[in-house]
Amino acid sequence: MVxxxxxxxxxxxxxxxxxxxxREEGHYPEVAVSFLSIACYHCVEPACxxxxxxxxxxxxxxxxxxxxxxxxCLGREQCGGACRTACLIDAPQFGTEPNGKMQKCDLCYDRxxxxxxxxxxxxxxxxxxxAGPQDEMxxxxxxxxxxxxxxxxxx
Length: 155
Prior knowledge:
CATH class: Alpha Beta
Largest sheet: 2 strands, antiparallel
Strand content: 15-25%
């Protein structure tokens, strides 16, 4: 989370393009704690794109990364954050500045273009994160059941 904020020059405060959810389960003496790193999933069919009233969000054809044009974005006060409301995991974030523009994980596409992985992947001290094309990730790690993310979805 810190590496992301630093790389993208995001000031301290409520905006986190990557969040870590802590999950506690069980009862003493059999307890377990797990952590789930959450950022934009760059969905196959992102709900945020049609929700944006001015088309400021698009999916790059070359790699599927979902990006936002902050110049086009109306800002939190003018549109009310329709993209965040549409997103199942609240990936779009708005800063605290007046009429803050939407920002979200862009998979550090500037780093990809230079042959490097996103900053969160390189900075993760436990090497728990990775990124790449879906077929490459599935062949490397197999398909992962989405059980851990089911509780994160909005009703």
